[in-house]
C-alpha cells in the first residue's frame, strides 16, 4: 500500500505576541476587570525585574502573586495556588516563567474548576485519568524557551508521594496568549540555555524519527528546525552573547518544536521522554539532561525499527551523502552525540548519576506508569526499555 499521511485534526488557538517590549500589551490582552493571580517560580522573575514590568503593565487590574513553583512543579505546591485563587476570588491566571511555571499554571487552571479530586486528572498509576471539562483562563510570559508549553495543551506534574512525573493534556489548557520576548532569555545561565536547545531538539526528534509516511511538510519542517538548532546551539549557550536575532531564532524554534504542528499526520515516539522522566523522578536530573543521556541509546537500540528515518535524518539533517545506509546512520548517531557534547549536555547515564543497580527501579517505575508498550509502533516493551537504559550506561 502506498504510504500516505495519517488523518489528523489540528487545533491551536494560542495568540502569540512575539518581539520587543511586548509585556506592555498585557493590559489589553487580559480583559478589563479581571482579578489576576500571577504565578512564578523560584524568584528569577523578581531578581531580573520581569515581575515588576508585568505589574506595571497590569496597574489597572487587581493582581496577586503566587511564587515558589519549583523546577519540575509539584502537585502539592500547585494545590496551594488553587487554594489562594479560590480564597482570593481571582478569575484569571498569568504564568511568568519557564515550562515548569507554565505547566504548573495549566494544572492550577484545570484543578480550580475540577469537580472532584484533582489527582484524578492524571492517569498512569496516580489517579483515574478523568477528562478536564473546563479551566480558568490564563496567559503566559515565557522566560525560558525549551518546552513549547507556551503554545500547547499539555503539562507535566510531579508527585512526590507517588514518585511519579505524569503528563495530562486538554484543549482547555491552551494559554489564551503567550508573550515571547527574546530579550528575556538574556538572563538565562548557560546550563538552562543548553537545556532549552536540547529539549527542543529532542521534541522534534520524537515527532520525526519514527517511520516514513510520506509526510513531506512535517519532514521538511522538522529537518529545517533541527538544522537551525544545530547551527545556532553553540552560540546560544554563550550566556554573554546577547545577539537579538540569535535569541529570536532560538525562542521561535523552541516554540514550534512542540506546538504539535510537526506531529500531525505522522507517527510519534516519545520513548526518550518516558525513560527520561523516570530519571528525573529518581534523582531530580534536569528534564533536558535526562533526555540527552538516553537519546543516543534509543538510536542505537532502535536502529532497525527506525532505519528509514535514520537514513533520512543522516542525509537531510547532517548532510551525510557517502557510504552505505548503515554507515550513514552510524555517522549520524556519532554526530548527534558530538553535537550534544558540544553544548555541554550529558550523553550517558553515568553523567546523570544513574548506576547499573538503578535500572531495576527505573524499569519498575515505567511499568507502574503504564509505559510497557511505547514508541511509534507500541513495540517498545519493558525489556527493550531495560536494554536502552543498559546501553546508555
Ligand atoms: O524558578 P526560577 O527562579 O524562575 O528559575 C528558573 C529555574 O530554576 C530558571 N529560569 C527560568 N527563566 C529564567 C531563569 N533563570 C534566569 N533567567 C530566566 N529568564 O530556569 C530554571 C528551570 O526552569 P524550568 O521552568 O524548570 O525549565 P524548563 O522550561 O526547561 O521546564 C521544564 C519542565 O517542563 C516540563 C518538564 O518535564 C519540566 O518539568 N515539560 C513540559 C512540556 C510541555 N508542557 O509540553 C514538554 C516537555 O517535554 C517537558 O516535559
Ligand atoms: Zn521535553
Automatic annotation (TrEMBL):
Q: Where is the Alcohol dehydrogenase iron-type/glycerol dehydrogenase GldA domain?
A: 13-182
Coiled-coil-forming residues are none
- Show which residues constitute the signal peptide: none
Q: Which GO terms describe its cellular component?
A: cytosol
Fe-containing alcohol dehydrogenase-like C-terminal domain location:
196-364
Q: What CDD domains would the database entry show? A: BDH
The molecular function GO annotations come to: alcohol dehydrogenase (NADP+) activity; butanol dehydrogenase (NAD+) activity; metal ion binding; methylglyoxal reductase (NADPH) (acetol producing) activity
- Pfam families named in the record: ADH_Fe_C, Fe-ADH
Keywords, comma-separated and alphabetical: Oxidoreductase
Q: What is this protein called?
A: NADP-dependent alcohol dehydrogenase
Task: Kindly list the organism's lineage.
Answer: Bacteria, Bacillati, Bacillota, Bacilli, Lactobacillales
